[in-house]
Give the backbone structure.
Amino acid sequence: MSLQEYRERVSRNGVTTSEAIVNNSKYSSSIQFFNSPFLKEILINDKVVNAIVTQGKTSGDKTFLLEPEKSVAAGSVVVISNKNYLVMDFKDEGINEIYPTGTLKVCNNLFPIKQNEMRVLLRDADGNPILDGRGRPQYTVEIVEVTVPCIVDSRYSFTRGEQQIVLAENRIEVVVGYVESENLKLDFEFKMYGDTYKVKNIDYSNVINGEGILIISAERKV
């Protein structure tokens, strides 16, 4: 079939030549994807997903390829071989519409997040509701603390891309997937490596439409 015949055929089907090429490329890529000897199941935000995972520049870095038209947000947690990773970046436009590709960095700790506020009915020692002077039940608010996988570095800053900026003594930077928490704010204190740290800065510049990563700068309490 000549190029002109191909163009006429796709035109009759109401598809432009470029759309047909992209669709054919996606189909071909999908076949190659599922026939890859490196195809494996991974967990992305607790959901099983097929992916092709390759080693990155270091043992803690990986690149993963999803099937065409699949997407995942930066900051998502990926589990591979019982290890937690954070999606640092994901590309799914242009050529990456056919080859959706993301980069991963291994998590080396857990970060405490206080969330899930819950109203709890106050009761006395006998289990009876405690009432106020008008006979109304009294409540308190309990905050449940959970932990999320994170990346901690005590040597270099995450904020300057490929350029390594040395952190000051007693400082660490923590990267977590974006999460809403009223307790995640300046001067919030948390435990890490047996020490207490206080949040000094939270960088939201990598968060778009409620998705992405937070870079938390903290200082050890001496």
In short: The domain at 3-106 is CATH 2.40.10 (Thrombin, subunit H). The radius of gyration is 24 Å. The chain has two helices and 13 strands.
